[in-house]
């Protein structure tokens, strides 16, 4: 019997190595696998490359740093691949200090580079970013009269995913705008770890309504963490 | 020119948004960028079926929710809580950006720092040396939508022009802007340069030209 459910956070995080490439989905707090990020903080892997859409808001005095920003604050992140770095954020400060290297790219290019990895496409051309700073050092070629930039797939060792519902085969459903990068990172990683609000019996999610099929999922942990909060 | 001599008042942020909203017809799929462009949604009458896209995977955004009726799972690109219209759909990020990059949006409206007479747009960075890089979806939208409109103040806070021959800030995309709505005028980007479509009441063409670096066409 296939059963991808794991019973503890330690089991979920088992085997994540120093130097791993880790994908973290979510848009603001919606669809962000915050419990798994806490698990990764606890697990201790360092020297990480993190692929994440946005790296966090500026520090607010008196407000505790959590999630990805906490991972950076603890010195565990070496590189970040992202579309958004803000001044005054924990990550922005680390980039300024030179302790974290940031590769900042357009959001659609980020999504497509992740999707490409999952789909077995090593690289693709896109007009996004042509004639801008993000094209520096990249191959340029003209297609249909437009200058295009060669962008490479981003593969990961580990993807952390937040789902609304999951069954023991790892079939997933996401809620509202919480889908965002979750189905993409699930496809692009060697090891995909899911936290889910709800556990379903096999067959309870109608086949037509499965958003990510279990083939892309390795481990599922039941974490009924509640609704996302608006960022401070 | 002192304030007492001028016979005109620049549009407010809401005034610019309302002006741009007038030109969006029923049936268009539209992405509204962060800032003043987001305000445009408030000025599209609900009976006009304009379908608003948000980069985080929402197609068919409705008006802001009433207090206590917010759905914590629904936000827009600015992380504000939103509602869905009847008929809305939700997609993942690769599909959301296929909508953007695949040329499916009739229009995107972006904020801007500078627009050049050839349609170059700068709206994400003031210098290549800046550590903070906030690209987000701007480069995808500028390249991908069928039409790109920019809504911005005509000059900077200290009076420097934003309507330029060439942008001095790092580009978002080259030759992408088709129309600009400022707090003083509506300008079309044409092969010959900026063509003035409309000027706010009381302002003359030469007064507008004096606040623009690029040469304007009547």
Description:
The complex is a heterodimer of chains A (about 230) and B (about 220). Chain A contains six helices and eleven strands. Chain A has about 230 residues and is α/β, with parallel strands linked by helices. In chain A, strands 1, 2, 3, 4, 8, 9, 10 and 11 form an eight-stranded mixed sheet that branches. In chain A, helix 2 runs parallel beside helix 3. Chain A is globular. The mean pLDDT of chain A is about 95. Chain B is of the alpha/beta class and about 220 residues long. Chain B has a single domain (about 15-215), classed as Glutaconate Coenzyme A-transferase (3-Layer(aba) Sandwich), CATH 3.40.1080. Chain B has helices at about 15-20, 35-40, 95-100, 140-145, 205-210; strands at about 30, 50-55, 60, 85-90, 105-110, 115, 120, 150, 165, 180, 185-190, 195-200, 215. In chain B, a hairpin with a 4-residue loop joins strand 6 (about 115) and strand 7 (about 120). The interface between A and B is large, with 51 and 41 residues.
